[in-house]
Amino acid sequence: MAAEGFRALNGNTLVEYIKATPSLCSQLGNLENLQIKEVGDGNLNFVYIVTTSSGSLVIKQALPYIRCIGESWPMSKERAYFEAITLQEHGRWCPKHVPEVYHFDRAMSLIGMRYLAPPHIILRKGLIAGIEYPLLAEDMAEYMSRTLFHTSLLYNTTTVHRQEVAKYCGNLELCRLTEQVVFSDPYKESEYNRCTSPYLDNDALAVREDDELKLEVAELKAKFCEQAQALIHGDLHTGSVMATHDSTQVIDPEFAVYGPMGFDIGAFLGNLILAYFSQDGHADAANDRKAYKLWILKTIEDTWILFEKKFTSLWVENKDGLGEAYLSAIYKDTVFSRAQEKYMKALFHDSLGFGAAKMIRRIVGVAHVEDFESIQDASVRAGCERRALDFAKKLLKKRRGFQSISEVVLAIKKVPS
Questions:
Q1: Does residue 267 sit in the same domain as residue 352?
Q2: Rounded CA gap, 304 and 402, in Å?
Q3: For residues 215 and 206, is the Cβ–Cβ distance under 8 A?
Q4: Which InterPro entries does UniProt cross-reference here (predicted)?
Q5: How far is 60 from 14, CA to CA, in rounded Å?
């Protein structure tokens, strides 16, 4: 099948493909009662759930364009290759939180992977519904610390690191897409920008006219383009996580590249902050969402605290290993502690900056978030978005003034409802 080259599959042709692919058949067992359901609601790809009486899996196929926009915005199908190898690499270091890859067909841009069965749902949908996830902070801190540390120079030799950086340099188009939609479009006139108009028209204009904001964003864009710190997921928002009360799974790393660690950390924290500011739009007489907002804030705080603890512990455990960023012959005792402190402070401020940039683009750029979009009353939605946008601008410009995640949470609490 792969030798025939690429063709977009549908429910019928996918059946033929599965039957001709032993690695998929072995996961499904008896194919007599095979059922296929198209569930992709994302911006880029087609996703199918495939089930039989004895097995299940997910098929994901990348198309040669951005699905949410159409063929007018072409996009390389090679993103499926980078997603597949990242699932395998991140799964190597954190198998508990990354679904297994059963099959990858590069010619067809198709991945077969473990199906995350109900009650797993997209985390963003769970946050909209007001569901608390008691293990979320712990699990995401584990995932981020293990994947980022083990793909960095803190763990690897410079030779291995450069080889891996070179491998991922080919993910050009998705990097360009990130550069455009996160760091460029919101700060200028763009055909793809939109906001909750007319309520936020002036707010969007203010972003485009804020010179201080532009200078800060330029610095972050340079970091994203120039800093090959670790293998980042590249799109680690709450729509790229599936969760239950006792399971957290990270999916969709097609934007993966060697980049700044803070881009992943910030994306996740920034999307939690967006979820926080959306809650007033989902409140009703039966539930004012105040308690839930406090849970989100605690999750934000716990995620960074646990990440920092786990990451630095991995560093201490491996300080005499192969990592060449801080050679043990040079960095001993006090200077090692000082190096860690300086590194983590810079990473914290990077994370705040990238998180703020991701927030801004979700409000006045392209591809908004369901947290806000599902608020039916446009004036209420705009009010929630404005509070989030104002905080994001403050966070981006003043991030170096925050010395702890507790200070960030306190600043969020002080934003008037």
A1: yes
A2: 13
A3: no
A4: Aminoglycoside_PTrfase (IPR002575), Kinase-like_dom_sf (IPR011009), Methylthioribose_kinase (IPR009212)
A5: 11
Number of domains within the chain:
2
Strand order in the sheet with 110-113: 35-38, 45-51, 56-62, 110-113, 101-105
Residues contacting 115, CB < 8 A, separation 6+:
49, 50, 51, 56, 57, 58
Domain of residue 52: give its range.
11-114
Residue 110 sits in the same domain as residue 129: no
Single-letter amino acid, residue 173 = E
For residues 87 and 187, state if they share a domain.
Answer: no
Q: What is the pLDDT of residues 243-288, one digit of tens each?
A: 999 999 999 999 999 999 999 999 999 999 999 999 999 999 999 9
DSSP H helical segments within 53-200, as ranges?
79-93, 123-129, 136-150, 158-168, 172-183
Give the domain-ending residue among 82, 114, 146.
114
Query: What SS3 state is found at 247?
Result: coil
pTM above threshold 0.70: yes
Cα R_g (the chain), whole angstroms: 22
Say which residue the tokens 């936020």 belong to: 200
With tokens 């963003």, the residue in question is 124
